[in-house]
């Protein structure tokens, strides 16, 4: 069975870390409502939902993906690039230890889970303001015994690698070529976002369903034309916090 580890929206989400966006008056009540709809979509896609409690002292804690990279064999707790987010990790450790052996990225390495894209035994990691060379190297060292390869990838104009590219099929990725070079993903099928929707590359594949923000209808149509099953959700309030649909869950077996 699939398990989706989530965390309720902090009432302090309006104080979230922002890198590429300016503060725009996030409504915590609306953000919480959108998050509940997202969790229902995860459940409908076949997940058992594990919901960690909201924390008024951790504005970004709804974005659990950044705190861990979870594979079939192991869970790697990250060391987030934003120091304010490092107190989010203990709650994730307590939960993930129920499912996997746990290791952790150590200083001075930094790594955000939103920078990590997995397709099969390959992982790509964005070299971003949140993930540094030391964190990427440690991730590779943890995963090499299990037969995974880890490749650093340059990104531009976005917070995380998964802002630029995500998996939407067994060997298909949705990608914005202005943010990451498609050549990095040689061997995969590339589906580019509609040019009118530059922020449309973040999608969450759960089983055979792609959970996707309703704000990007042109790119949604491109996926549907490629026979990808899409389930849209409202996610605009969470997007104001530089969060996407991958950010709000850690999906594991």
Automatic annotation (TrEMBL):
<feature type="active site" description="Nucleophile">
    <location>
        <position position="247"/>
    </location>
</feature>
<dbReference type="GO" id="GO:0000052">
    <property type="term" value="P:citrulline metabolic process"/>
</dbReference>
<feature type="active site" description="Proton donor">
    <location>
        <position position="160"/>
    </location>
</feature>
<dbReference type="GO" id="GO:0006525">
    <property type="term" value="P:arginine metabolic process"/>
</dbReference>
<dbReference type="GO" id="GO:0016403">
    <property type="term" value="F:dimethylargininase activity"/>
</dbReference>
<dbReference type="InterPro" id="IPR033199">
    <property type="entry name" value="DDAH-like"/>
</dbReference>
<protein>
    <submittedName>
        <fullName>Dimethylargininase</fullName>
    </submittedName>
</protein>
<keyword id="KW-0378">Hydrolase</keyword>
<comment type="similarity">
    <text>Belongs to the DDAH family.</text>
</comment>
<dbReference type="GO" id="GO:0016597">
    <property type="term" value="F:amino acid binding"/>
</dbReference>
<dbReference type="GO" id="GO:0045429">
    <property type="term" value="P:positive regulation of nitric oxide biosynthetic process"/>
</dbReference>
């Amino acid at each position: 069975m699939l398990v989706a580890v989530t965390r309720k929206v902090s009432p302090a989400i309006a104080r979230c870390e922002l890198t590429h966006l300016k503060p725009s008056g996030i409504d915590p009540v609306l953000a919480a409502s959108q998050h509940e709809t997202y969790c229902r979509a995860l459940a409908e896609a076949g997940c058992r939902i594990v919901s960690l409690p909201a924390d008024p002292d951790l504005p970004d804690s709804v974005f659990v993906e950044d705190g861990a990279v979870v594979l079939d064999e192991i869970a790697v707790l990250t060391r987030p690039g934003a120091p304010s987010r490092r107190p989010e990790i203990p709650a994730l450790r307590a939960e993930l230890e129920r499912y996997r052996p746990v290791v952790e990225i150590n200083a001075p390495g930094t790594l955000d889970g939103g920078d990590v894209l997995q397709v099969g035994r390959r992982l790509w990691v964005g070299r971003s303001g949140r993930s540094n060379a030391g964190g990427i190297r440690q991730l590779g060292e943890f995963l090499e015994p299990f037969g995974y390869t880890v490749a650093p990838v340059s990104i531009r104009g976005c917070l995380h690698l998964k802002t630029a590219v995500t998996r939407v099929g067994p060997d298909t990725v949705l990608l914005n070529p202005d943010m990451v070079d498609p050549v990095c993903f040689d061997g995969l099928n590339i589906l580019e976002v509609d040019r009118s929707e530059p922020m449309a590359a973040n999608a969450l594949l759960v089983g055979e369903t792609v959970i996707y923000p309703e704000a990007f209808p042109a790119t949604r149509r491109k996926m549907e034309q490629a026979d990808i099953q899409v389930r849209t959700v409202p996610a605009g309030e969470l997007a104001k916090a530089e969060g996407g649909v991958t950010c709000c869950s850690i999906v594991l077996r």
